[in-house]
Queue: 2 jobs
Job 1
Amino acid sequence: MTKTRRSAAWYGKLDRDGFIHRSWMKNQGFPDHAFDGRPVIGICNTWSELTPCNSGLRDLAEGVKRGVWEAGGFPVEFPVMSLGETQMKPTAMLFRNLLAMDVEESIRAYGLDAVVLLGGCDKTTPGQLMGAASVDLPAIVVSSGPMLNGKWKGEDIGSGTDVWKFSEAVRAGDMSLQDFMAAESGMSRSKGVCMTMGTASTMASLVEAMGMSLPTNAALPAVDSRRMALAHLTGNRIVEMVDEDLKPSDVMSRAAFENAILANAAVGGSTNAVVHLLAIAGRVGVDLTLKDFELGGEIPLLVNCMPSGSYLMEDFCYAGGMPVVLNELGDHLRPAKTVLGGDIRAYAEGAECHNRDVIRPFDDPLKPAAGLRVLRGNLAPDGAIIKPSAASDALLDHEGTAYVFENIEDMKANIDRDDLPVTPDTILVLKGCGPKGYPGMPEVGNMPIPKKLVQQGVRDMVRVSDARMSGTAYGTVVLHVSPEAQAGGALALVKTGDRIRLSAVEGRLDLLIPEAELATRRAAWAPDPPRYDRGYARMYVDHVLQADKGADLDFLTGKDTRPVTRESH
Ligand code: FES
């Protein structure tokens, strides 16, 4: 070994500090040789019973430990904040940056040489990657893996996607409340993340496309024994990476982010990938912008998974998973190093597809040109996005009259009013749901179709907001309008009755009113009073960047790899 390990500053010293660092760890029964200079591997765990999607991570941590011991390392598991998407209020996204801070400071403060990141539920993967990137020690991701396919009345049902459908069916009077309640038990049949191509599986797929996990990590079901084997192999590999000094900044290059954008189009991935990739790139020092997401524009949809298709993650796994998708992307993929040390294109080459209905060939896709579209115009000067693969083709070029909800409470109180003055051509506008406004940019952009229209059979309308949308959701939904209303963006100035034009093809989103009128409204505008005056939420609102910058905190971008030299005793 030519380089002194980082952990030696904790466990390698023959003085009082070394005694203290070793002795207290020995109270767990670790023998002397655990401190003989072998790599200390942190296992950063977001396991929690309040994050059901990550409830299998305790088992996977044991798999990682086996692999680390076997390879001659010393594994130590530690908890970080867990973010249960379906359980947290006001929204888990408010806390993504807090998790990232927790991960960063935990890795830095302890005597670790490398880290395995155990995450899964939506915000846990990007939060962990952001934090790990800012310390830049060798790191690999092991994901929770998806739940088994949901089953109800003999049919497959998908997390999230079918909840939205069932809920609209109940509102339309097409589904009984008893059936609605019965379906919830069949939907979530095992540990694991949503088994649609929601945000969790999207981020796991992009992690694999970026080379930050071992192959097949994204799609193996949470309860498949091969996931435990993958955790074991990851434990083996992370020990080798310490000696190779293979860091996140070596793997998450600009090329890796571009591969993630291409892969996101091919899998029909979540719109949430945009804010997460931008934030991770900001940590690792890659100058990624919203414009870079246009790279995915011409990539076809290859993966036939909900919400853009009809299958689920278990089917995607059995069809071959991400290696097949990356192989189909072929020459579109950029050369980029993976945690295995080789090139991503080599790892994908020759991957065999076992079901062409689930993963389509590049030249016979499910939909052509499926990537997210970036929109600009006077209503979104810094950009907005739309996911055409989950939208209605007929609405992607649409001009209509705005009906405005000033905030989420206004929308919830009025959306089902019988006298709501809306038609199928109306454009629904929702304000106050951006990073600062809500705060935390919740997944409410796919606001429900007004009840009176649902009952007429309407299932989609153009909707515009500064919010995000669940990766499991669908519809002609314009999201992440920047700047947001609370930051004084033009969205704040829209009034009911204004005309709005959306053209996804041209990449435009425009408020069709004269500039002079906009200036008059702007002069009269003032932000809402802050909803929080203390604690983390106060810090978040004061420092959060807008969605087009990834909604990280302004003082957390970049990294700090300096050694910690001061002792606590
Ligand atoms: Fe956790 Fe979907 S809610 S992965």
Job 2
Amino acid sequence: MNAPIGIFDSGYGGLTVFKHIKQLMPEYDYIYLGDNARNPYGTRSFDVVYQYTLQAVEKLFSLGCELVILACNTASAKALRTIQQNDLPRIAPEKRVLGVIRPSVEEVGQISRSRHVGVLGTNGTVRSHSYFLELEKLFPDVVVNEEACPMWVPLVENHEYERPGADFYVKQHINRIMAKDAAIDTLILGCTHYPLLLGKIKQFVPANVKILEQGPLVAKKLKLYLKNHPEMDVRCAKNGKVRFYTTEAPERFKESAQIFLKEKIEVHHIIIG
Ligand code: DGL
């Protein structure tokens, strides 16, 4: 078997995760799929996010992927469990779909000293309380506060993330979450778009608070997963090839993706659903 690893996001955000995966494991083949035509997912209902994500996963399977990473918190929060429990056994029992919430929770539970943690995410992720529920399961001693930052994805998607206008919304949500619980010592950036705002986030976060970015930790956990699952690893192609697909206009994706990845890429249009 010669399967690329599928990386899925509603748009560009997953590139902040993919960048680290590619850096850590350049020898594997990858297909990145961004559902830019239908994003943002963060504002959509549970059913719609589930349906869109399942369609994307099926598309990546049809392109030859055996393992798919949902590099999107909203999709991980609203669709992953149903896909793993109900759909995979039916459509592809040998294939695997993994998300970004579980690895983030495992990491945060180990690094927080005060045991007070803050989660920043889209409306969808925060309303699902997925972080809260996972943390409660794995680390019941951790106190969790969540804050939806609905303006942050549009700031990134519209290339406003380094401009002065972004300060207002970054400061507003950081102040709000710190006001909910001043003992927070670790903040999870629970949306794959947010690392682009990291420079600004750091300006407003108290100096003692750690900011947890998902890219490096998801890459590390994926490497470990493949080491622990040699039956999946042998199915993965290792020619260092990457293909990018978007449901929107490839030119638009290319322009923005280059900002995220800092390299020139080829992008193809794809229809899903
Ligand atoms: N990047 C997605 C996430 O991690 C959110 C973007 C969207 O709302 O579509 O949650």
